[in-house]
Amino acid sequence: MNQVDEMRMDKWLFAVRLFKTRGQAADACRGGKIKLNDTAVKAAKTVRVGDTVSVRQSPMVRSFKVIGLTERRVGAKLVENFAEDITPKSELEKLRRAKREGSNTRNKAQGRPSKRERRLIDQFMELGGNT
User: Fold this and answer.
1) CB distance 80 to 65 below 8 Å
2) How confident is the model at residue 26 (pLDDT cuts 50, 70, 90)?
3) Which residues lie below 8 Å from residue 4, measured CB to CB, with a gap of 6+?
4) Phi, psi angle pair for 85, to nearest 5°
5) Which domains does the chain have, with CATH numbers?
6) Conformation bin of residue 17: beta by default, left when phi > 0, alpha when psi is -120 to 50
7) Range name among 37-41, 59-63, 95-99, 112-116 with the lowest pLDDT average
8) 90-116: burial string, b at 16+ Cβ within 10 Å, e else
């Protein structure tokens, strides 16, 4: 593996398989979903070994410590050599709870929502879903 001293945020996110494409990683940076050491960053921001990267993936925020940098995308088994998952257990519990509740499921037999139903769904989701 080629080791480097620093690299772009979007390239690192793609290389450690947090996003399927580099474009998706750049979009996440643009959308403010990526933080480097608790500061929102753009895709071109450089990442160094020892930095902490936070990725907001609904409904939780995953945190990673940068252990290594690589110029190429690595296999799933090798990701642990470049990123250490330091996500708090409370965040992981949010994901489990959201999966358990499954509030976004809809009965397929009902067909497409009416205009009124769609507005109610939008209003419900703006208020925070199941809070």
Assistant:
1) no
2) very high
3) 69, 70, 71
4) -75, 115
5) 1-90 (3.10.290.10)
6) left
7) 95-99
8) eeeeeeeebeeeeeeeeeeeeeeeeee
- Side chain identity at residue 81, one-letter code: N
Query: Which residue's structure tokens are 């580099």?
Result: 22
Query: Strands 46-48 and 39-40, how do they pair?
Result: unpaired
CA–CA dist 76, 54 (Å, integer): 19
pLDDT class of 129 with cuts at 50, 70, 90: low
Residues 6 or more apart whose CB falls under 8 angstroms from that of 11 comprise: 22, 25, 71
Amino acid letter, 124: F
